[in-house]
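Retro notes
What went well: the complex prediction finally ran end to end.
Inputs used:
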Amino acid sequence: DIQMTQSPSTLSASVGDRVTITCRASQSISGWLAWYQQKPGKAPKLLIYKASYLQSGVPSRFSGSGSGTEFTLTISSLQPDDFATYYCQQYNSYLYTFGQGTKLEIK
Amino acid sequence: QVQLQESGPGLVKPSETLSLTCTVSGGSVSPYYWSWIRQPPGKGLEWIGYIFYTGSTKYNPSLQSRVTISLDTSKSQFSLRLSSVTAADTAVYYCARGGSYSEIDYWGQGNLVTVSS
């Protein structure tokens, strides 16, 4: 299995801050990485696919980068609606695996 | 707009079989992959398996001996069966579109299944 490790596990930030979440794969996954946002009691929502492509309807303050084994999700200016848990997921292998999640909290 | 809706019992007894169905609306089941993913309370996401519109399947090796995913294209539905359940199978079960090297772009709202006697 390809292991996905996110950091940090928890992130405290304020509205207007720029934040970055990192995701590392245990082996190269090329650019086959997605980022999801999940709010309590809701299904995950696709934000970024193929490492850097913005899903339709997702605000442009979200961006993704990286390839191989290291990837980042950046939110350029935090909005109140962005406080949630974020997951990365690799799909380089048929056996999809997710990171453990990063909870973004209000400071 | 594609929508997915899970249905099935919220409570299953230990050693019995968990069965869930996902109904797809607003789009066709072809030519897509359809997945089941679960999330234990307060924990992360685990991919269970997928089915292609042709009927071919792939399962997570950790669950393969207990999982069956099937598809009824005439009803735009796909289903999950998980046998011999234990408390460790208690989770919110999501159906979703995507699999086999494609991102998961549509999700159902989730169905909490509790395994308890």
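What we learned: The mean pLDDT of chain A is 97.
What to try next: split runs per interface for comparison.
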